[in-house]
């Protein structure tokens, strides 16, 4: 019988609990062991409060959703505006909610790629609402304002640290010490920083020497700021297939 690519490889999945299933299943399908340890939780704002806040904003010509969570908690205020989405997962969430995606990048999954689309090149005088989490990146809003758009930001959820008991954390550390965690995944800077905060200081050496895969260059920069010698790998995208391909490449004993 042919051995699957991740046979014997343990992968720490730090995605929020409600978003971890796709990546965990993809890891397990190729023989890996997915160890779910969410470091981030997403808390949506009350729908009525979001609706009231949206009504105070100028009627948008374009609504931009920055994530699937933004769609989850904010699609009900999109109105009849044209919809822009960052990344395939966000676009899929828009379509699952019964709406069409009018603007998205064909070759990328971040703000930079969306800003490069022809539809957002000339937005002078347009009203644009960015639907995002509390404290999101300002690059998108700042750049569109530089292009003379009237930009409003609507926060529809907050990111917080996932709650874990001392027993759960101790169990994770024991698994790590036993060599059961070979690769760590971190989808965002917040998920990585929360993992650092959740681990006991005495266990941070385990993270520092473990291979890490992320789809975001911002995360790599943050990781290497904390642990300059940590082995890292940038996946081609945030989808499960791209992440698993990167995990296979960086996994112990695999070609890099």
Q: What do these coordinates show?
A:
The two termini are 24 Å apart. α1 packs across α11 and α3 runs parallel beside α4. The model has no long low-confidence stretch (mean pLDDT 95). This protein is an alpha/beta fold and 256 residues long. β6, α6 and β7 form a beta-alpha-beta unit. The protein has two domains: 119 residues, 3-Layer(aba) Sandwich (Rossmann fold); 118 residues, 3-Layer(aba) Sandwich (Rossmann fold). The protein has a five-stranded parallel sheet, with helices on both faces. The chain has a five-stranded mixed sheet with strand order 3-7-6-4-5. 37% of the residues lie in helices and 20% in strands. The radius of gyration is 20 Å and the shape is elongated. The protein is built from eleven helices and ten strands. The longest helix is centred in the last third of the chain and has 12 residues.
Structural topology:
Layout: E1 10-13, H1 21-29, E2 33-36, E3 40-44, H2 47-55, E4 62-65, H3 68-74, E5 82-85, H4 88-96, H5 111-115, E6 127-133, H6 139-146, E7 150-161, H7 166-177, E8 183-185, H8 189-198, H9 204-208, E9 211-214, H10 217-226, E10 232-234, H11 240-250
């Amino acid at each position: 019988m042919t051995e699957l690519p991740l046979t014997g490889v343990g992968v720490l999945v730090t995605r929020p609990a409600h978003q971890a299933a796709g990546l965990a299943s993809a890891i397990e399908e190729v023989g890996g062991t997915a160890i779910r340890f969410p470091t981030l939780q997403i808390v949506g704002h009350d729908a009525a409060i979001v609706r009231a806040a949206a009504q105070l904003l100028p009627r948008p010509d374009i609504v931009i959703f920055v994530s699937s969570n933004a769609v989850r908690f904010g699609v009900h205020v999109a109105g009849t505006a044209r919809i822009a989405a960052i990344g395939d997962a966000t676009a899929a969430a828009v379509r699952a909610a019964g709406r069409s995606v009018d603007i998205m990048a064909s070759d990328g999954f971040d703000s930079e790629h969306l800003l490069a689309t022809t539809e957002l090149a000339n937005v002078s005088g347009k009203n644009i609402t960015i639907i995002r989490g509390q404290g999101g990146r300002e690059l998108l809003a700042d750049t569109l304002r530089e292009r003379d758009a009237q930009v409003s930001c609507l926060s529809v959820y907050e990111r917080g640290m996932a709650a874990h008991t001392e027993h759960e954390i101790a169990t994770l550390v024991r698994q790590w010490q036993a060599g059961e965690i070979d690769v760590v995944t971190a989808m965002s800077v917040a998920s990585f920083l929360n993992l650092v905060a959740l681990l006991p200081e005495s266990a941070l050496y385990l993270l520092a020497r473990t291979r890490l895969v992320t789809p975001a260059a911002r995360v790599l920069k943050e990781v290497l700021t904390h642990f300059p010698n940590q082995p890292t790998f940038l996946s081609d995208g945030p989808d499960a297939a791209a992440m698993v391909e990167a995990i296979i490449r960086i996994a112990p004993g695999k070609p890099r």
